[in-house]
Design brief:
CATH class: Alpha Beta
Bound molecules: NADP nicotinamide-adenine-dinucleotide phosphate
Largest sheet: 7 strands, parallel
Helix content: 40-55%
Strand order of the largest sheet: 3-2-1-4-5-6-7
Number of domains: 1
CATH architecture: 3-Layer(aba) Sandwich
CATH topology: Rossmann fold
């Protein structure tokens, strides 16, 4: 088989993919899988060390951009870099996000603003600013969470930000399908990623929370980031050609308990 026919057998052969929050967890696992499937990949994140590690793992061909998803100027600069490198975007994975644990009465305005600015405003404007680059048959995938349909008393702002994304995916699914662009969401349950360590809980509490979630889950474990990446690949590829404005739940059935 020559190089052209090998590329043709891959699910994303010849496609250009941008993954926000691609330096860690779900985004990094998805970047690896997309590369294996023949895509040219760009990733973002904020932390310089994580970005340098990701560049090493993903290889020099991958475009690695330090870009804060909550900052419109940085989103515009990101799109300019992606345009210069790849000319267009075939797959946009809007995945950057943060979770912070806090009881309702303790949530500060700054915490509220930070979560909403990254998880919701960031996603909204990432898609808007990417629009001129999106190919006619592009796939946009947004990472929501099963928290967007359940009460999450210690993550009330996070859960609401993800509910806003669920709504956005429906609106943009309708707004963009006329151009051939499919917008869909993945709604993960608990996934074993560094996010748990960044939630603001002390280490012991965080480990206890992970154990409790695994125990409570019908499948008796957390998901791996690779299990979410494989669903992202489905939504990114032509295999999901009739899916528009939908949300795929990947949660080991914890969400239907
Ligand atoms: N893990 C779970 O259980 C779970 C469940 C449901 C949904 N999710 C969602 O899945 C997505 C990925 O999370 P993960 O579990 O893979 O967590 P993670 O390992 O902490 O990765 C989060 C990624 O987002 C990036 N990021 C965060 N804020 C950013 C910002 N302002 N600008 C640009 N990049 C930013 C991080 O880079 P920096 O650290 O450099 O900022 C990192 O690359 C999130 O949207 C999360 O809400 C996760």
């Amino acid at each position: 088989m020559n190089n052209a026919s090998i590329a043709a057998t891959k699910k994303l052969g010849g496609k250009a993919a941008l993954i926000t929050g691609g330096s860690s967890g779900i985004g990094l696992a998805t970047a690896r899988l997309f590369l294996e499937e023949g895509a040219r990949v760009a990733i973002t994140g904020r932390d310089a060390d994580s970005l340098a590690r990701a560049q090493k793992t993903l290889g020099a061909e991958t475009l690695v951009v330090k870009s804060d998803a909550s900052n419109l100027g940085q989103i515009e600069a990101l799109m300019a870099q992606v345009r210069d490198r790849y000319e267009r975007i075939d797959v946009l994975f809007v995945n950057a996000g943060i979770a912070r644990a806090a009881a309702f009465e303790e949530v500060s305005e700054a915490q509220f603003d930070e979560i909403v600015a990254i998880n919701f405003k960031g996603a909204f404007f990432t898609i808007q600013k990417a629009l001129p680059l999106l190919a006619a048959n592009a796939a946009v995938i947004v990472t929501t969470s099963i928290a967007n349909r359940k009460g999450a008393p210690d993550y009330s702002v996070y859960a609401a930000s993800k509910a806003a994304l669920r709504s956005l995916v429906q609106s943009l699914g309708l707004a963009l399908i006329g151009r051939g662009i499919r917008v869909n969401a993945i709604s993960p349950g608990p996934v074993a990623t560094p996010m748990f360590g960044r939630s603001g809980l002390p280490e012991e509490l965080m480990q206890a929370r992970k154990r409790a979630l695994a125990e409570k889950s019908p499948i008796k474990r957390l998901a791996t980031p690779e299990e979410i990446a494989r669903v992202a690949l489905f939504l990114a590829s032509d295999d999901s050609s009739y899916m528009v404005g939908a949300e795929i739940v990947v949660d080991g059935a914890i969400g239907i308990l």
